[in-house]
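Example for tutorial group B:
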């Protein structure tokens, strides 16, 4: 899939995150004041957030066992980094792409989410500052 197709897929996706007070749906696009309030309250977010999955690197479908290994590896790294996070699920509403489990990183230091995304060979991550539009952050133009 080319970059334009990937951009469309990221923008149409639903990003489900499980905060202590329940499920939160995030999308790429304009700031969502209600989501920001929940992220700041139940999610303990003070500045920024990022969505990251280790599954299906470079949009190449892996089997469930391989994706689970990557997920477990990234979860271990987040614990080792003492990075705050909540579970997430990245969903294609058309059902053409399988759900991808991932992580909603809370207040990651500058470049951490980008570095992790690159290490897990992702094309992009989704990120935002509270009160700002969420955006697709491309990680490696050479892969497009």
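The residue assignment follows.
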């Amino acid at each position: 899939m080319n970059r334009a197709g990937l951009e469309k897929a990221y923008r149409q996706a639903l990003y489900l995150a499980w905060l202590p007070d329940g499920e939160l749906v995030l999308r790429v696009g304009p700031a969502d004041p209600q989501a920001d309030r929940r992220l700041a309250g139940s999610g303990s977010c003070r500045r920024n957030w990022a969505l990251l999955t280790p599954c299906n690197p470079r949009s190449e479908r892996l089997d469930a066992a391989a994706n689970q290994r990557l997920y477990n590896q990234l979860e271990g790294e987040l614990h080792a980094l003492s990075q705050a996070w909540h579970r997430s699920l990245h969903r294609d509403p058309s059902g053409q792409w399988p759900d991808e489990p991932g992580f909603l990183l809370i207040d990651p230091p500058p470049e951490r989410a980008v570095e992790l995304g690159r290490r897990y060979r992702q094309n992009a991550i989704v990120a935002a500052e509270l009160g700002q539009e969420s955006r697709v952050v491309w990680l490696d133009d050479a892969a497009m």
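Residues 48 and 107 are 5 Å apart (CA to CA). Compare this with the pattern of hydrophobic and polar residues in the output above.
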